[in-house]
Amino acid sequence: MAEASKLSAALRVRVVIVLMLAVGGLVLFMANRVTETIEKRTVMQERRARPLLQEVNEIVDTLLDRHRINPRWVTSWNVSTRDRRFIRQERRVYVPPGFVSLDFNHDLSQLLAQHDTRVVASERTKEESVSMHVIHDGMIIESITFVLKRDLK
User: Fold this and answer.
1) Residues 88/79, Cβ–Cβ less than 8 Å
2) What CATH number belongs to 2-148?
3) How much is the pTM?
4) Cα angle vertex 15, ends 14, 16, to 5°?
């Protein structure tokens, strides 16, 4: 009898382990499916945003000129994933003390509204910078960081 209970206890442990492995496999399978769906959605958003990016660049360049920002004060680069997939364009813009970022943000928002695109800004007081993110379909397609440089005129 003791031998039979030992056997059934060992069998129960094995059954529990098999069930846990099966549940773990199911969870991993479902997580993989969800990740694939999210990735496909992201790729579709990128494809829709790509033509808009050129228009956004032209609008930003026009506004920088209108707000008297010297092109030498602007540095631009593209941010990509490890597999070289485009994420967004970023710009760092040095601005003189008289620059009013709120006016730029308002102008940019007005011009981008017709493209169903919005601008979200945040200020970092200690770093004396303001970052503006151009968002289309929930994805940031361009970031502009204005950095105060006191010796510019």
Assistant:
1) yes
2) 3.30.460.10
3) 0.65
4) 90
